[in-house]
Amino acid sequence: MFFSNLFKRNDTLDKNMERHILFAPNYLITTEEISKAKRYIFGGHSILVIEETPEGKGLYFERSRTSKSNKFTPENDNQIHIGFQSIRDQHYIIFGLRQKLTALNSGDQITFHFKNDQELSLKLETPAENFGRSKKYACNLRAQITEEEAELFKKDLVHSYSAKASDGKEVGKAELDKDFSRKLRELSQTYAFCLRHYY
Predict the structure, then answer these.
(1) Does 1 reside within a domain?
(2) Between 97 and 9, whose confidence is greater?
(3) Residue 194 and residue 192: Cα distance in Å, rounded?
């Protein structure tokens, strides 16, 4: 199974989200100073942290509304969870894959298909490190993205994805349901906003 604080339930954070659910999804409600980090709580769906360590800084989602529905496939036993993170000057889209239930591996390629007919192909890699001492950045696979590519997720809805193994063989494809497609865009809007203004 995939274990990570990134997607782990947290009753305190759930209550924070319920309290702020009436606000617009990307409206910054409040900030909190925590040990060597700052927590940003957004209306409706996201709690994001920028952490400082001797090695540099990192950005991660402590909680997001997509963590309750962030799957690329409708079957409960074949899920791909998605998120964003930054480690120092590198930015990533990250994937949590249920063990033995997906064919994706390091070196494979995933392509996102947007509603405006644009496509974005990314090469998957295995994380070489976790930022800081916590497991908040734990993920099975990730793909490096630029700030411009993060903006693409922010502007346009993703309607489907396809994936190919390193030998070119197609290993998976699926459409995203409308609800998750919208939540993914909201998640990327918050991520891109924090990259631009706070990171």
Answers:
(1) no
(2) 97
(3) 6
